[in-house]
User: Which sequence fits this backbone?
């Protein structure tokens, strides 16, 4: 098995702020000790609810924010140690597709300008007479009409804007794409179009994806390995998308994902308690307060992420079978 | 007779006609899902039922909304106000803005029973706390004295549900009540809502874009597309044998357990905006079965032995 | 910029916008064409015709030295417009530079800039201008410097607020992820999107600056004679107020009409651009 394209080791990021104007400083570990390999040509899904740290993780993977601890290695290079010039070079190979198509394009730029900007920034701008062709190529690739080139973002629909965002991310022919909930704000019929498009690119270009989402059903369809996060920590890694989750939280997530089939109705098991404040995490397992299986051990000692008997990894004292 | 009946309801806002001949009904105690994507008109339908269209400069220009035996669209505002909160309650999408931030949540629930049922403060409080317990709010008597900003999104939405149920309404209109919540919280809230309306035999009009929620919670389904009804029917039949091509494609857009890679197909094209609805059947530009007739003639909503569909090609399932 | 040019079209279709634009155009043209239009040399004295009523010979009358008021007012427009527009332009450019840098990079620089801005914000502009002229001495150049500095705080604040709001937009993050450095982000994305409210604020400030210049001129601290200045004209006219009141009235009217036209134009521009909300943030 070849080396993974992207490796994260003990990655962490802490934010500090003050409670109110005069309160004590407090810190929050948005991402806590994440160790993860992202293989080339495969889709790694990260799923979790609000506050789980998945968006922060996406930005750490591309060094859009600095890590507080740990490292991210891209194709053998530790990106955290790179100088700005070298970082700019390596950015050609790793790009991001953002969640909100409505604000990811500068409203003053025509679509052609948006698509040419990556080249301008990287000093790879084609000569003037080839620029229109370059823009056309990118529009064709994502299934947009060539006439879109002279339009402005406010004239396009959400789905069209997102296609432009994808085309922009692919303009420099990267090897690694981070997708931060790319379809969350789109209608479900458009979401399916975009996912089909992403599938094609993965196959045609051999891209590695880090696919962030809150939709476990979508992640299990699209991804080759599934990472479940809760309050900044990885609680489970499933190395096959159809694997049966063993962590109580992963199970709760799956249980909460309703199938479009009335024959598959289920009774939702009530989950006690609320998500604790990330500033005041109790010791032990982060999920213990809400877990139906929690024991005294769970509340006292934090479980480590270790090999799971079902393949993959799990951080739990009492995995379910 | 149906509890709520919309017959050919057409809504105009200025020169635009965002709802065209909407027709469906809800029986007492029934949970009906009104499902559609953006621009389908589902929120407008809720506003039409609640009589809130004037807030956005809209009005019902033809058709009728009947509740029990009252024709709502002809009702003077004073009488409508007596109805709202008492017999028909609304749950909105965003719990953050549904609650008054400067008043305690318990008081906001109490108010409903005090105004609509004439209860005294003590009685109202007991009733509210009981309702909160049924909605599985822990330490309900403590939470009763909290302000909204003390509570999480899921808790706030439970308070909003309590307010909706406080006056024992006959119908609740819930407009995307869980869209703003996390997935696990959403599942809990849907479960609780269904339990409560069944227990109190309240009808529920559940507006959502999520077919999974529809399959989980609803008895019958109304599918809207671009301001018109595409199909109605029982939840079992709609999912097992949908008649309208849009319903069929929409179900196919959801990744189900075990779907092979590459099996997720979207629907080509975009959802049309109100200003540029296509002629004839509004779905025809995106429909793989579209024929010439579909481009010119808008299909009428035809009733079958189970449900109704607005498609020239719809027949009874084999 | 495509968005503001279509707004300009909208603006000119409103009666208020069109009227203000026409008046401003007349004033600017008169100032530019002063040597051609003015019937007399603005400095030509003719003591035999001092304090004449407006009439066929001198359309707006003469002042205490027999100088033609009409010519002096037209040349005075030059002074006011040049000082107003130049000072505010300099102030805008410097304010935008300071505000953008403070808003984007934050940190100690931002804290210092904010402190200085808040300090000068608490002084009325006239007071600041007087203090600066006291240090620099009266004259055209010092007037322009004083006015520029007096209005610096406003543009710095506005730009800083805009940049801080815009830097968390997703397209800024997208540009950074493509490898852009701060310069590219600031000049290609943040400033172009932040500039529109600043330009409109600059336009309205020009009206203020013209009044400020006239005030300084009234006290003899602005442009020095023989350069005609509306404020100075009003000042010297106070002695003649019972004999020849028009010496004060006409320059005063000129100031009023100019500033009102600028303000109406600015108001119409705000409506046409629909940026009332963004201006409030500044």
Assistant:
């Amino acid at each position: 098995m070849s080396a993974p394209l992207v490796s994260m080791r003990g990655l962490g990021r802490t934010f500090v702020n003050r409670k109110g104007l005069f309160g004590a400083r407090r810190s929050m570990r948005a991402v806590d000790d994440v160790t993860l390999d992202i293989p080339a040509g495969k889709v790694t899904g990260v799923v979790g609810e609000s506050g789980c740290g998945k968006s922060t993780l996406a930005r750490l993977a591309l060094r859009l924010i600095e890590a507080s601890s740990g490292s991210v290695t891209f194709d053998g290079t530790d990106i955290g140690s790179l100088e700005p010039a070298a970082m700019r070079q390596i950015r050609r190979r790793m790009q991001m597709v953002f969640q909100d198509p409505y604000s990811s394009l500068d409203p003053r730029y025509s679509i052609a300008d948006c698509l040419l900007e990556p080249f301008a920034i990287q000093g790879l701008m084609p000569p003037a007479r080839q620029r229109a062709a370059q823009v056309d190529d990118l529009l064709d690739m994502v299934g947009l009409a060539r006439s879109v080139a002279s339009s402005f973002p406010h004239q396009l629909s959400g789905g069209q804007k997102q296609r432009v965002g994808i085309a922009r991310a692919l303009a420099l022919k990267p090897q690694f794409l981070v997708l931060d909930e790319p379809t969350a704000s789109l209608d479900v019929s458009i979401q399916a179009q975009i996912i089909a498009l992403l599938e094609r690119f993965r196959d045609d270009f051999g891209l590695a994806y880090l696919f962030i989402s809150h939709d476990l059903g979508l992640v299990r369809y699209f991804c080759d390995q599934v990472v479940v996060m809760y309050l900044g920590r990885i609680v489970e890694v499933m190395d096959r998308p159809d694997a049966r989750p063993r962590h109580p939280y992963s199970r709760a997530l799956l249980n909460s994902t309703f199938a479009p089939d009335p024959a598959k109705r289920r009774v939702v098991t009530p989950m006690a308690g609320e998500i604790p404040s990330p500033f005041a995490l109790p010791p032990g397992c982060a999920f213990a307060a809400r877990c139906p299986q929690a024991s005294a051990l769970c509340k006292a000692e934090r479980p480590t992420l270790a090999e799971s008997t079902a393949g993959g990894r799990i951080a739990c004292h009492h995995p379910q079978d | 007779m149906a509890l709520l009946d919309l017959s050919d309801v057409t809504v105009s806002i200025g020169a635009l006609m965002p709802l065209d001949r909407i027709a469906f009904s809800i029986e007492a105690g029934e949970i009906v899902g009104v499902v559609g994507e953006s621009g389908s008109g589902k929120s407008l339908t809720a506003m039409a039922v609640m009589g809130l269209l004037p807030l956005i400069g809209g009005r019902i220009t033809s058709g009728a909304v009947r509740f029990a035996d009252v024709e709502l669209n002809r009702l003077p505002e004073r009488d409508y106000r007596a109805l709202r909160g008492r017999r028909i309650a609304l749950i909105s999408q965003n719990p953050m803005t549904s609650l008054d931030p400067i008043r305690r949540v318990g008081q906001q629930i109490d108010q409903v029973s005090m105004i609509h049922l004439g209860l005294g403060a003590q009685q109202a409080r007991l009733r509210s706390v009981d309702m909160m317990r049924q909605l599985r709010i822990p330490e309900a008597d403590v939470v009763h004295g909290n302000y909204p900003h003390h509570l999480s999104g899921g808790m706030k939405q439970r308070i909003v549900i309590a307010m909706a149920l406080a006056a024992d309404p006959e119908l609740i209109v819930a407009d995307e009540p869980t869209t703003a919540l996390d997935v696990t919280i959403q599942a809990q809230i849907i479960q609780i809502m269904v339990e409560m309306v069944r227990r109190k035999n309240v009808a529920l009009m559940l507006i959502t874009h999520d077919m999974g929620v529809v399959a989980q919670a609803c008895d019958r389904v109304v599918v809207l597309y671009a301001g018109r009804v595409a199909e109605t029917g029982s939840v079992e039949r709609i999912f097992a044998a949908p008649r309208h091509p849009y319903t069929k494609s929409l179900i196919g857009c959801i990744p189900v357990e075990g779907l092979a890679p590459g099996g997720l197909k979207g629907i080509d094209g975009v959802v049309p905006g109100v200003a540029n609805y296509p002629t004839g059947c509004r779905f025809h530009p995106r429909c793989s079965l579209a024929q010439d007739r579909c481009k010119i003639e808008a299909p009428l909503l035809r009733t079958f032995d189970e449900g109704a569909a607005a498609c020239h090609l719809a027949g009874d399932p084999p | 910029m495509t968005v503001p040019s279509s707004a300009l079209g909208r603006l000119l279709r409103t009666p208020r916008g069109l009227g203000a634009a026409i008046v401003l155009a007349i004033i600017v043209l008169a100032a530019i064409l002063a040597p051609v239009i003015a019937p007399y040399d603005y400095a030509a004295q003719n003591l035999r015709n001092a304090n004449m009523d407006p009439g066929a010979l001198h359309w707006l009358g003469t002042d205490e030295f027999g100088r033609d008021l009409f010519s002096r007012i037209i040349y005075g427009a030059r002074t006011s417009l040049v000082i107003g527009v130049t000072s505010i332009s300099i102030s805008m450019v410097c304010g935008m530079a300071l505000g953008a840098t403070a808003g984007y990079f934050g940190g100690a620089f931002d804290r210092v800039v904010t402190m200085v801005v808040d300090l000068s914000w608490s002084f009325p502009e006239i007071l600041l201008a007087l203090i600066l002229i006291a240090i620099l001495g009266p004259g055209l150049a010092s007037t322009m410097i004083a006015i520029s500095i007096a209005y610096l705080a406003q543009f710095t604040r506005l730009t800083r607020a805009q940049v801080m709001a815009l830097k968390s937009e997703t397209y800024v993050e997208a540009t950074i992820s493509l490898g852009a450095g701060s310069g590219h982000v600031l000049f290609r994305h943040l400033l172009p999107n932040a500039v529109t409210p600043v330009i409109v604020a600059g336009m309205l400030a020009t009206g203020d600056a013209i009044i400020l210049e006239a005030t300084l001129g009234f006290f003899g601290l602005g442009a020095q004679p023989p350069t005609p200045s509306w404020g100075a004209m009003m000042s010297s006219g106070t002695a003649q107020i019972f004999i020849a009141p028009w010496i004060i009235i006409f320059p005063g009217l000129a100031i009023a009409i100019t500033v009102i036209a600028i303000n109406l134009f600015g108001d119409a521009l705000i409506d046409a651009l629909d940026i009332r909300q963004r201006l409030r943030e500044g």
